[in-house]
Amino acid sequence: MSATITSVNYQDKKIPLIFEKHPTLPIFNLQLIFKNSGYIQDKNKSGLTSLTSKILEEGTLKDGAVKFARKLENKAISIDIANGFETFVIEVSCLKSEYKTALKLLNDLLQNPNLTKATLDKLKKLQVSKLTQKENDFDYIAKLNLKKLVFKNTALENSSSGTIESIKNITIEDIKKNISNIYNLDNLIILAGGDVTLKEIKKSIIPILYNFKFKGATNSKKIKINKSVQNSIIKKDTKQAYIYFASDFNFDSKDINSYKAKVASFILGGSGFGSRLMEEIRVKRGLAYSAYGHILVNSTHSYFTGYLQTKLENQEEAKKLVSSIVKDFTKKGVTLKELESAKKFLLGSEPLKSETFSQRQNRAFNLFYKGLDQNYPKQELEMIQNLSIDDLNSFIKEHTELNQLSFSIVTK
After folding, report:
1. Host domain of residue 335
2. For the whole model, what pTM was predicted?
3. Which of 105, 172, 206, 308 can bridge 288 by disulfide, Cβ–Cβ 3.0-4.6 Å?
4. What's the pLDDT tens digit per position in 143-177?
């Protein structure tokens, strides 16, 4: 059974509501998802949205973090705040018997968050400490530097965690302003469900909406990857080379050929053992313990990226091999054996990704967010099943931009 797509009427406007019924367990889940409100909006205050989500988990001004957390714990209620690149999410989970209490505590948090300088200073200190520790995380360094290469002068250039300098400069006024910008009803999508009725959800959500205002919908521009080939080598005291790479993938998230991109990504580097990258780099040549690559398709950006670690003396050989594998992939496509193996795995594993209630909820949201029908997963499996090798290879050969690989390497 697919989710119900409806809306909540509030102040003569309709707010999208995605409802997933789950009558077999006495649970309740509510997610308030604000689109175009993730760290895409941080601009020159890198890490701002990350700190915003953390401070909203510090309880109310009246109770403080510890006392408020105890109130939640006593009723087995969870209130989590998180952000991605494009979204900001407030999530409430509890037993059905406690959902009214959970919503009351959420309302308390929204009306009276613990926005004090002392709280922010504590969180900033913790964040700076984590960032300092990451200075010796060579995977993190290579990955972050890759983003700086291929997404230069865009919102994706910086880490969601910010930098030590940017975190130190964020003020409580910055946090308050960011919260005000995030709490925009025109950007809100409500995701709810459990052992409750749609009527109950619509009624109980109204008091929560009082905390937000209609401010006009905001839209994020498409982010283009830097198409010119970039290479960066950072020297550290390391015993192996950390190689991260990326290239453009000129594709739209609403393209009807998205299922072909999924199959191509799986064969090239997403399937682990059996993928081109793993077979050529590890199995045949023993140049790395693991090697992965996958195509990422989002509403704001799409690109191909991957990584591996190898011995210092094998660094150049591994780098050249990655480029060679991708070039051969776009030139010749895949084999029938690879396609049949990919079909078998994808057709068998995809249904398992919607076994749990949370998986079904997340799938329902992602489909709505991408503008796809709730029945799309079934249609996608049918299209994968019927995908011919000629159609797939024609699709792959059209995307020669995959060859324009940029590399970020941390080495000795």
Report:
1. 231-411
2. 0.93
3. 308
4. 999 999 999 999 899 899 999 999 999 999 999 99
